[in-house]
Design a protein that fits this description.
The protein is mostly beta strands and 114 residues long. The chain is built from no helices and 7 strands. A 4-stranded antiparallel beta sheet has the order 4-3-6-7, with no helix packed on it.
Amino acid sequence: MSAAGCLFGQTETEPSFTLHNIRSYLADPETAIVVGRVEKQGDAAGNVTIRAELLIEDEYDHVSTQTFVISEDVGERVIALPFTSDSSFYGEQTFTARAKIVRHGEADGEWVSE
C-alpha cells in the first residue's frame, strides 16, 4: 500500500521596521545613550539591528550596534544604545547622534538624525 500526499510548510513573513525620534543623552560623565523608537510593520515577531553613531568634533567615530527582539504582540518599542568610557570622556564632549536600521543582505535604512 502506498500513500501520496503533499506537505505544505507555512512560513511567517518577517516584519519590517521603521526608526523614529533619535535623541542623545548624557547619563553620567562616562556614559552617553542614544534613544529612539522602532515601529514594527507586520504581525510576526522579529529582530531589528540598530547602528548608532555619535558626532564628536565633526566626526562620527563612536559607534554602538545592537540587535533588539520585538515580540509579535508589540507594535513599537523604545530602544537605547549605550556608549561607555572608563573616564569622564562623554561628560567633556558636545555631541549629537544619528542611527539607522542595519538590514543584513539588503540596503540599510536611511540615517535618522537628531
